[in-house]
Amino acid sequence: DAALRSVADHFLHKVELADDIFGGVVEICVEMQKSVFGLAERFKKEVQRYYYVTPTSYLELINAFKEVLQSKRDDVSKMKGRYDEGLDKLLNTE
Predict the structure, then answer these.
(1) 19, 27, 36, 78: least buried by Cβ within 10 Å?
(2) Cα-to-chain-centroid distance, residue 62
(3) Can you say how many angstroms the Cα of residue 2 is from the centroid of all Cα atoms in its chain?
(4) Model-level pTM greater than 0.90?
(5) What pLDDT digit, counting tens, does each position of 37-68 carry?
(6) What DSSP string describes 13-54?
(7) Are the C-beta atoms of 31 and 85 separated by less than 8 Å?
(8) How far is CA 69 from the centre of its chain?
(9) Residue 87 phi, psi dihedral angles, 5° rounding
């Protein structure tokens, strides 16, 4: 668990998040990866096939989170800009 936390901490360090949220995101990444390990083991038992969980898959999870976060931040910023512009127009028409 410590290694997974360390990797998540390292790769998410530059993402702007409040400290309490940052800690939660790191813990979720760790739990998700551990869950994947468990599901891979279950898959092996039930289907007799291997599903390999690699360090790269963990990095892909972290990068996917960063991409989704940035996309949602961009969306919110765009919507806020539209809101501010509409509010300015309303105030200027009075």
Answers:
(1) 19
(2) 6
(3) 19
(4) no
(5) 999 999 999 999 999 999 999 999 999 999 99
(6) TTS---HHHHHHHHHHHHHHHHHHHHHHHHHHHHHS------
(7) no
(8) 6
(9) -65, -45
